[in-house]
Amino acid sequence: MPALLIALLLFLQPPLQGQENSEAPESSVQKPQAQIEQINPYQYRIGKILLDQKTREIRFGAGVNMTEGLLEFLIVGTQSNKVHESLFLTDISPFHLNIAMKLLGITESPELFEIVDEDYRPTGKFPEVPQEVRKKARVTILVEWGEGDQKKVVPVSEMIHFINWPDGTQSGLQPNQEVTLNDLKLSSMKNDPWLSTGSYIHEGKLKAEVLQMIAAIYTSQQALLNYPGKGRLNGDVWIPNQKVVPEEGTEVQIIIKPSQP
């Protein structure tokens, strides 16, 4: 039996590890059925996700959801309640994506999430994460669309603009004020790696699976992936780059791979 298939089977035996304050015992964790198919010596299909050991890439289909308006998420599921603020929609299982990332050696880092005390009050402290774990938690996310000579592959950072509101204001908008793109001072999202944060288990279920949250721009502990850069705690600074994002409804391939060689 191929080594990766053995690893898949071993991975599926124990339940996912939840947060320390998870309300459900590990033995009660419920998981979607993992549909695993070996395509060739290097490639496996996990549900609707393609895992390629040779290129060290994870691929899955998605669609462009919006070309204007404020963004808080990069990718969510079609049944998520965050559809109205996500750049892409997909019908994959977040649980299957979690498996695929683990099998490529992508770890999870909780470094973005402030520690709270027993009364859930912020402490101002963040988890101490070993540098090696931090490195292995970094991923590159690309978007591919088109055919033949028209095919394009771009980092997601090129598809998202950051609004530079005036200093000292939360959004720079007055009540009922309308603005156009020409009124805004925009810059591209910094092309840094994204962070695998892994979501968590609550009441026996992976929260990312329940809420269909895959990749968050505005920091979300429920999502599998988070943007770790400047502006991650602001919900009114991100919009699609209309010069790069294809028209709404365009089918794309999302590519995720470890940022480490």
Describe the structure.
By secondary structure, the chain is an alpha+beta fold. Helices cover about 10% and strands about 30% of the residues. It has an eight-stranded mixed β-barrel with strand order 4-6-5-14-15-11-7-17. Strands 10-9-16 form a three-stranded antiparallel sheet, with no helix packed on it. Strand 7 (about 140-145) and strand 8 (about 150-155) form a beta hairpin. Residues about 15-30 and about 175 have low confidence and may be disordered.
Brief account:
It contains 4 helices and 17 strands. With 261 residues, the chain is α+β, with helices and mostly antiparallel strands.
Side-by-side strand order of the widest sheet: 4-6-5-14-15-11-7-17
Rough outline: globular
Q: How many distinct domains?
A: 1
Structural class: alpha+beta
Element string (H = helix, E = strand): HEEEEEEHHEEEEEEEHEEEE
What is the oligomer described by this structure?
Answer: single chain
- What is the CA-atom radius of gyration, in angstroms? 19 Å
Low-confidence stretches: 13-30, 173-177
Helix content: 10-25%
Q: Which range does the strand content fall in?
A: 25-35%
What is the makeup of the main sheet?
Answer: 8 strands, mixed, barrel
Total beta strands = 17
Number of H- or I-type helical stretches: 4
Distance between the termini: 27 Å
Average pLDDT rating:
85
